TrEMBL record:
Belongs to the class-III pyridoxal-phosphate-dependent aminotransferase family. One of its GO terms (molecular function) is pyridoxal phosphate binding. Keywords: Aminotransferase, Pyridoxal phosphate, Transferase. Pfam families: Aminotran_3. PANTHER family: AMINOTRANSFERASE CLASS III, LEUCINE_METHIONINE RACEMASE. This is (S)-3-amino-2-methylpropionate transaminase. Its EC number is 2.6.1.19, 2.6.1.22. The keyword Transferase applies. The keyword Transferase applies.
Length: 450
């Protein structure tokens, strides 16, 4: 079975002949702005494995960038979608109520860790839509115009979320952008100012946030502060608990809502169903959570959840969308969450993460190009540098590692403000043997890239 297989390259080179032909067709038919560096054309996927059109087997540690926490082609999800498809594909929520939407909203309300007893959820189609709708809800509730985001943030590619996203290569030449989006410095402790003591680090980053109130928007004009519990595109950097405690207090003191962008961190990826559960253990919860990616095992869907009083502040007609909460997507999501809870995938994420972190930490002592390893559960980043003392980023070696690894049958992806981090997002159904083989290939790719 493919889902139990190990990486295997049978063609003389990559891409193979059939893949090369389709990649050429892609280049002729689609814009190059949707870039892809991988010489892979998928024919089928199972678990954590891909078979390409030439019969090569690849171990996928990207998982659609966090979409496939339960892996490719889970048979129970396929069956759930087929069962729904036999009834109807679509019923727009503004026109006809369908039970899947309601049942999924009820389920999300029961598992999402936001402030409040009574919660409400509505659905969109992508992570960017979830983030944008979360902002709409926050502005409706607070009657305030501005938001604060952070360095290193990635929130999407719509007009608003491009302005929220830090790296401007995602929005180059596409302005002007909406006003009222202001940026503070994210607590990237590995890259704190040189010589700063540990005890001064927290106060430094909190002052950087409070500086926004003085130089960009008064606190009384800020509707929400938006933060990823573990930055994804920014370099897989977990939010320090002591920092988010201070941010929560700032929000409470100033009537600001705290929005957690759990688009990539949600659905067992970090060793909890949601990363904000780590905050909850410390008595902290956000006001709104935006989630997406692995919610539907690959079918487009996202969710926005908040307490009832926040949701009911929104004026009729300002929320919704034609495909939001599509019946097939809701069927997939309900089954996906059931599988995650039944099969204890959050626990599995912790098991995987411990092995990966242990291995990466050993590599950090072994290879001078590895500066830092960090993460939560099965969401881990490994940062490459040119010099451990100066911490100068090394995106060149990351590019080499990614290309060397895929030639050996392992698909990995870069991240980070400087493009010098490799992210671990393997499907949580990966076998122990596949994980071990993937780590072996990864290390071999590092050695080959030195």
């Amino acid at each position: 079975m493919l889902k139990e297989a190990l990486p295997k390259i049978i063609t003389e080179s990559l891409p193979g002949p059939k893949a090369k032909e389709l990649i050429e067709r892609r280049n002729n038919a689609t814009p190059s702005a949707i870039r892809c560096v991988y010489p892979v054309v998928i024919a089928r996927g199972e678990g954590a494995m891909i078979e390409d059109v030439d019969g090569n087997y690849f171990l996928d540690w990207i998982g659609g960038v966090g979409v496939l926490n339960i892996g490719y082609s889970h048979p129970e999800v396929i069956a759930a979608v087929k069962e729904q498809a036999d009834k109807y594909f679509h019923a727009m929520q503004n026109i006809a109520t369908h039970e899947g939407y309601v049942a999924l909203a009820e389920k999300m309300n029961s598992i999402i860790p936001v402030k409040g007893v009574e919660k409400k959820t509505f659905f969109a189609n992508s992570g960017a839509e979830a983030d944008e709708n979360a902002i709409k809800v926050a502005k409706s509730f607070t009657k305030r115009p501005n938001i604060i985001v952070f360095s290193g943030a990635f929130h999407g590619r719509t007009l608003l979320t491009m302005s929220m996203t830090a790296k401007k290569s995602y929005s180059n030449g596409l302005g002007p952008f909406p006003d009222g989006v202001y940026r503070a410095e994210f607590p990237y402790y590995y890259r704190k100012p040189a010589g700063m003591s540990t005890e001064n680090t927290l106060s430094y980053y909190i002052k950087k946030l409070e500086q926004v109130f003085d130089e960009a928007s008064p606190a009384e004009q800020v509707a929400a502060i938006v933060v990823e519990p573990l930055q994804g595109e920014g370099g897989f950097i977990p939010v320090p608990i002591e920092w988010i405690k201070a941010v929560r207090k700032i929000c409470d003191d100033n009537g600001i809502l705290l929005i957690a962008d759990e688009v990539q961190t949600g659905f067992c990826r970090t060793g909890k169903m949601f990363a904000c559960e780590y905050w909850k253990e410390e008595g902290i919860m956000p006001d709104i959570i935006a989630s997406a990616k692995s919610i539907g095992a690959g079918i487009p869907l996202s969710a926005i959840t908040a307490r009832k009083e926040i949701m009911e502040s929104v004026k009729p007609g300002t929320l919704g969308g034609t495909y939001s909460g599509n019946a097939l997507a809701c069927a997939a999501a309900l089954k996906t969450i059931e599988i995650m809870e039944r099969d204890h995938l959050a626990d599995r994420s912790m098991e995987i993460g411990k092995k990966v972190m242990s291995t990466y930490t050993k590599w950090m002592s072994k290879y001078d190009v590895i500066g830092d390893v960090r993460g939560l559960g099965g969401m881990i980043g490994i940062e490459f540098v040119k010099d451990k003392a100066t911490k100068e980023p090394n995106p060149e070696i990351v590019s080499k590692i990614v290309m060397n690894a895929v030639q050996k049958g392992l698909m990995i992806e870069s991240a980070g403000v400087y493009g010098n981090v490799i992210r671990f997002l393997a499907p949580l159904v990966i076998t122990d043997e596949q994980l071990t083989e993937g780590l072996r290939i990864f290390e071999e790719a590092i050695r080959d890239s030195l």
